[in-house]
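ok, trying the design again with the full structure, not the truncated one.
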């Protein structure tokens, strides 16, 4: 609007065109920094809850660079999770499996089922951090009582990406094993992106698939827990999905993965495939 008013004044001969251009440039020099400050403040306030959560997690762990260590593989085999065929959750939701299941934290598990069948609810209940639980899910250990939630890490494509460089999003500014970091970012195709992000690329310009790879890199780098992967590769192309699954299968312990797009040959690689029929 001010520009059009100025243009009108030029046509009336009240100011010259060169004077209008100078005024517009001065206005830009004045207001652009104000707009940038406003955006920076918005980024700051939007990231405050994430920063608080990170600080809380740091205070709860004595070793944030490597996460809570899982027991050795032979001990993992003694920690058995039993799932009843019909599961009723504390939030009133009921889901149905095709049969009863039992598995250990040393097993590689795939969870499949139609959309809305309760796959995410099942993972969240196993994680024990979302106020969802069920008496139809039992954990037994022949050697000791174990808190399953303290051993699990729930990883989803909705995990936070906050303002900052890609490297900062992966490491969360923790001291990390540089060799492990290089291996992960190279395997996930993030090496060039990390370099570029350090210079100019905004985190807001990343695609959904790129964000998912960053979330996966962060989880694998900062934690040695039992992973619960909830459709973590849904937006990742087939080539990187295969590389990501190779990383999953290279883990010392087991994991649970919820996936939609997966072939029969891929399913054979898992120790067990849990089939959900749907909600009741």
């Amino acid at each position: 609007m001010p520009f059009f008013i100025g243009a009108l004044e030029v046509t009336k001969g009240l100011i010259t065109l060169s004077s209008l251009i100078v005024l517009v440039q001065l206005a830009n020099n004045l207001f652009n920094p104000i707009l940038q400050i406003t955006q920076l403040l918005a980024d700051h306030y939007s990231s405050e809850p994430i920063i608080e959560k990170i600080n809380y997690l740091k205070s709860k762990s004595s070793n944030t660079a490597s996460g809570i260590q899982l027991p050795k593989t032979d001990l993992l085999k003694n920690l058995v999770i039993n799932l009843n065929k019909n599961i009723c959750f504390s939030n009133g939701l009921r889901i149905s499996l095709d049969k009863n299941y039992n598995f250990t934290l040393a097993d590689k598990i795939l969870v499949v089922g139609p959309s809305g069948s309760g796959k995410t609810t099942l993972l969240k209940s196993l994680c024990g951090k979302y106020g969802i639980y069920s008496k139809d899910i039992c954990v037994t250990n022949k050697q000791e009582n174990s808190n399953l939630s303290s051993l699990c890490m729930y990883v989803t494509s909705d995990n936070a990406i906050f303002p900052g460089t890609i490297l900062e999003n992966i490491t969360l500014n923790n001291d990390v094993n540089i060799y492990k970091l290089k291996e992960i970012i190279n395997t996930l195709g993030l090496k060039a992106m990390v370099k570029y992000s350090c210079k100019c690329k905004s985190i807001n310009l990343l695609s959904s698939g790129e964000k998912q790879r960053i979330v996966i890199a962060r989880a694998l780098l900062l934690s040695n827990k039992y992973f619960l992967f909830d459709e973590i590769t849904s937006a990742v192309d087939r080539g990187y999905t295969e590389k990501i699954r190779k990383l999953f299968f290279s883990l010392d312990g087991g994991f649970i993965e919820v996936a939609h797009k997966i072939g029969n040959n891929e399913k054979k690689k898992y120790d067990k495939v849990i089939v959900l029929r749907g909600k009741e």
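Keeping the full-length input from now on. DSSP finds eleven helices and ten strands in the chain.
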